[in-house]
Amino acid sequence: MNSVFFRRDVSVTDGAWVATAVSILLIFLFRIFKFRFFSSPSPSIADSVSHAQIQSRTPRVVSDDDLKWLIQNLEERNEAAEMWEHVIHKTNNRISYSAKRCKPTDGGPMKYLSVTVFEDCSAEVLKDFYMDNDYRKQWDKTVVDHHQLQVDSHTGIEIGRTLKKFPLLTSREYVLAWKLWHGNDNFYCFTKECDHDMVPRQRKYVRVSHFRSGWRIRRVPGRNACEIKMFHQENAGLNVEMAKLAFSKGIWSYVCKMDNAFRNYVAISHTPQGSVLSALTLIAKVPSELESQTVDVTVSMGTNRGEEILTQVAKQKKLSRKPSKKLIAKGLVLVGGAAICLSRGHSALGAKAALAYLLTKLNKRATPLKQTTHNTSI
């Protein structure tokens, strides 16, 4: 009798174990099935961008009013009310560059207005070159990182984040929104700072608090050349006088480097990926009321007014104090949000330390602008 009950207990126990094993197997298979077919992958920047492109619209941070403001500044309609200082005029057989600057009366960041003329090129290719951020990362070594955050297919506004390195200074973070327009014979682009939920502020970067930049590209009449006229205003939290000195001494070398990159861009027939949704592929038409207001005359500081500018620059140099060559032998160069380190020969540790000390003193003594929200740190 005991043996009978023993066999029954064993058979019941075995059945319980089998049932338990089957249940565990079914639960395991269900979880695999659910994970594979019903769950979504962990979110990434690319996934978020794709979702933003389809599901939501960006705030109208860039509008036709910004284009109107840009056209007024490019055509210098208010130039008589402002004191502009001519900075540089340089030229070679492939490119010419001229720039001037103005300190706004409202205490805002320094304003720059420049004209660059590229020989032997088309406006279409020049536009594509300026908007190709992936290619820029190859030739502009100051760009540490750039990625697209959001694109609105309804408004044509694109938002992106760019990280740029500054020698001896904290890297600057740019969160920007931009839009493109095309007119009868020209292209426009306007860019300004903005915020985005995907990019919270971080202490290890200095977020650029004020950024207004735009350009117009058009063909030079009677020549196989194109000009890009640019307005730029930025507050990156740097000493104003140091930035002015660095720009004057380093901008031409940067322009020549950009020209070499452009010629390589043309040689390899580099074209933007048409399948990628961007402000370039969503370029808008210039409103008719703004198109009629534009002046159909090429005002090129680099061609028509070259001799006049050279004369004015020479006079200003005589009146102003000449900076020390030792001070500018190694310096920080700002070019429209880009930074270049000018090095003459091999740098010594003592020279680097001296420059770091100088930049620290200048930053401490600089008067912060109204738009500054972050302190500059070395």
Descriptive key words:
378 residues, alpha+beta, 11-stranded mixed sheet, two-stranded antiparallel sheet, disordered C terminus
Describe the structure.
- Keywords: Membrane, Transmembrane, Transmembrane helix.
- It holds the Pfam family START.
- InterPro entries: START-like_dom_sf, START_lipid-bd_dom, START_lipid_transfer.
- This is START domain-containing protein.
- By secondary structure, the chain is of the alpha+beta class.
- The protein is 37% helix and 26% strand.
- The chain has ten helices and 13 strands.
- It has helices spanning 2-37, 45-55, 64-74, 123-131, 133-139, 240-267, 288-291, 306-319, 325-328, 349-365; strands at residues 84-91, 95-102, 111-119, 143-151, 158-166, 169-182, 186-193, 206-207, 210-219, 225-235, 284-285, 331-335, 338-342.
- Residues 1-13, 30-55, 296-311 and 317-378 have low confidence and may be disordered.
Task: Explain the layout of strands and helices.
Elements: H1 2-37, H2 45-55, H3 64-74, E1 84-91, E2 95-102, E3 111-119, H4 123-131, H5 133-139, E4 143-151, E5 158-166, E6 169-182, E7 186-193, E8 206-207, E9 210-219, E10 225-235, H6 240-267, E11 284-285, H7 288-291, H8 306-319, H9 325-328, E12 331-335, E13 338-342, H10 349-365
Parallel strand pairs: 6-8, 6-11
Antiparallel strand pairs: 1-2, 2-3, 3-10, 4-5, 5-6, 6-7, 7-9, 9-10, 12-13
